[in-house]
Write a structure and sequence with these properties.
Shape: globular
Low-confidence stretches: none
Helix content: 55-70%
Order of helices and strands: HHHHHHHHHHHHH
Length: about 325
């Protein structure tokens, strides 16, 4: 019973952290964009607006939820869960700090494969939501979601392949440990800058965030695949987006920013563990700020440009990067051995 109890407690803690992170990431986005646009942002609910996520949650709980008469009821109700579950379970293999016990599934040697598999499943929630709603705008949003996410997953996978080649390890903990030569230049963002740039761009496309938010372009599709959703079902889609933002930030930090590594993490006892968790949290926070900053800065892509960019630019560059990385490793170039 001990392993079952351990996994249960870890899962509950992870869900609570993810829910809290989701709530306050929405507040972070609204406050940060407000500052970028010379506004104040939410400031009425609680001190400095800190209770705004609570107010939003209560509003969605009590809000009436209407089901379209011609919707496929079973799939219509399952779609929000299919969107949220992959966003949550991707955290299972991400190491939040030093020590395998700070990862839900421990230090498994196929962590990268697990991440890619879970991220590819996330599109089903969007597609089925659009199809089951029996709404033309929602259906178009679902079709866009499937085309966009499948297109950009290829380049994302290849960017991660370059990381796996460098580290000779498919374990996320092993990739973090590989990036600890004693200074910041050991991070793969400096040794694999092309892979890091491709992962960052494709992560935005996977999240359907600006400038890749064609899936729910308000001026064209009302709200895209979530047009017919309200109340808590809408909240679940909203939650899946922000939880995936945190997950993608955590993955970028793990693959390219050294994960939990940093000065003092090798200190014995609790100090090293606390420092490792703190470093990881700071890196994830910085990545979240960058995602919000991009949304406030860049305009939306035109849809044909979006698809052309994924297939004609990112995919060939990602393939070339993998080939060059493999050649450098085989050649024994310092830093790529």
């Amino acid at each position: 019973m001990a392993p079952i109890l351990e996994f249960t407690l870890k899962s509950v803690a992870l869900i609570l952290i993810a829910l809290t992170g989701f709530a306050y990431t929405t507040l972070l986005e609204r406050k940060f964009i407000g500052r970028l646009q010379a506004r104040i942002g939410p400031n009425r609910a609680g001190p400095q607006g800190l209770l705004q996520p609570v107010a939003d949650g209560l509003k969605l709980i009590v809000k009436e939820s209407i089901t379209p008469a011609q919707a496929d009821k079973l799939i219509y109700f399952l779609a929000p869960a299919l969107a949220v579950i992959p966003a949550l379970i991707v955290f299972a293999v991400i190491p939040f700090g030093k020590g395998s016990w700070l990862s839900l599934a421990g230090d498994i040697n196929i962590g990268v494969l697990y991440v890619l598999a879970v991220l590819s499943v996330g599109v089903y929630g969007s597609v089925l939501a659009g199809w089951s709603s029996n709404n033309k705008y929602a259906s178009l949003g679902g079709l866009r979601a499937s085309a966009q996410m499948i297109s950009y997953e290829l380049a994302m996978g290849l960017s991660i392949v370059a990381v796996v080649l460098m580290a000779s390890n498919a374990s996320l903990n092993g990739i973090v440990e590989y990036q600890q030569p004693g200074n910041i230049l050991g991070w793969l963002i400096f040794r694999q800058p092309v892979a890091a740039a491709i992962f960052a761009i494709t992560a935005l496309a996977e999240l359907a965030r600006a400038p890749f938010d064609l899936v729910e372009a308000e001026q064209e599709l009302t709200a895209g695949f979530i047009t017919e959703y309200g109340g808590m079902k809408f909240a679940l889609f909203y939650m899946s987006e922000y939880v995936k933002m945190i997950a993608m930030s955590a993955l970028f930090a793990t693959f390219f920013l050294g994960g939990w590594s940093g000065p003092g993490v090798n200190e014995p006892g609790a100090l090293g563990v606390i420092l490792s968790v703190l470093y990881f949290a700071v890196k994830v926070f910085v990545c979240l700020l960058c995602i919000v900053w991009v949304r406030a800065t860049l305009p939306r892509f035109r849809y044909d440009k979006l698809m052309s960019f994924g297939w004609k630019a990112l995919l060939p560059i990602a393939l070339a990067n993998v080939m060059v990385t493999a050649l450098l490793i085989v050649s024994g170039v310092p830093g790529y051995k």
